[in-house]
UniProtKB/TrEMBL annotation:
The lineage of its organism: Bacteria, Pseudomonadati, Pseudomonadota, Alphaproteobacteria, Maricaulales. This is Glutathione S-transferase. InterPro entries: Glutathione-S-Trfase_C-like, Glutathione-S-Trfase_C_sf, Glutathione_S-Trfase, Glutathione_S-Trfase_N, GST_C, Gtt2-like_N, Thioredoxin-like_sf. Keywords: Transferase. It comes from Maricaulis maris (strain MCS10) (Caulobacter maris). The keyword Lipoprotein does not apply. Gene3D superfamilies: 1.20.1050.10, Glutaredoxin (3.40.30.10). It comes from the Bacteria. GO terms for molecular function: transferase activity.
Length: 209
């Protein structure tokens, strides 16, 4: 197997942390998004979506997003489970992954990609060109802020997002919280549950992956 990565980007970071939690050690190739290497013909032939993370399996199959990569690794490396242990945990992991991705990570991406000159005409990831929509900047910031509050509320109910076990949902949330720095989003005051959780997660060795 080969994992296609870009060390500075949030999306492949999620997959690296998950691999570290499971003790998975495979070949890694860096794709320099800063140099727009994701659009090079050689990589585009591997992943026509021109995104990382991507995981090329031994049979040539290429998995091109965190959901499929996490599911594959969960099947072949089941311990420790990162997508939930019980039916309820599995449902909660799926729910919080959807919320963090759709509200938090997407909110930051909206604010970042519709403002930065680097993303002019590429405000959405992938091979297609989309013009920036400046009106989405403040909406993205508001969505990200709302997600921080939602995380704090949930983490006042449980140690982790899906209950008492660390999961892929926590990985996504941790990466999201760090990603907010890219748009200089201030951390709202009073989110003590989120702060406690973040400190605990930051101490995990996998976070350095």
């Amino acid at each position: 197997m080969k994992f296609f990565d870009y060390k500075a980007a949030p999306s492949p970071r999620r997959a690296r942390i998950l691999m570290a939690e499971k003790g998975i050690d495979i070949e890694i190739e860096q794709i320099d998004l800063g140099a727009r290497a994701q659009f090079d013909p050689a990589f585009k032939a591997i992943n026509p979506r021109c995104t990382v993370p991507a995981l090329q399996l031994d049979d040539g199959t290429v998995l091109c997003d965190n959901a499929s990569i996490a599911r594959y690794f969960e099947e072949i490396y089941p311990d420790p489970p990162m997508l939930g242990r019980t039916p309820v945990e599995k449902a909660l992991v799926a729910e919080w992954l959807a919320r963090v991705e759709g509200e938090g990570l997407m909110g930051v991406a909206e604010a970042l990609r519709n403002r930065s000159e680097f993303f002019k005409d590429s405000s959405v990831t992938g091979p297609n060109r989309y013009a920036q929509v400046p009106e989405l900047i403040e909406r993205g910031r508001a969505r990200a802020t709302a997600c921080l509050h939602d995380l704090d509320t949930r983490l006042g109910e449980a140690a982790y997002l899906a209950g008492d076990a660390f999961s892929a949902a926590d990985i996504a949330a941790f990466v999201f919280v760090d990603f907010t720095a890219w748009i200089k989003l201030p951390m709202p005051e009073g989110l003590d549950n989120l702060a406690r959780w973040r400190e605990a997660v930051a101490a995990r060795p996998s976070i350095e992956a």
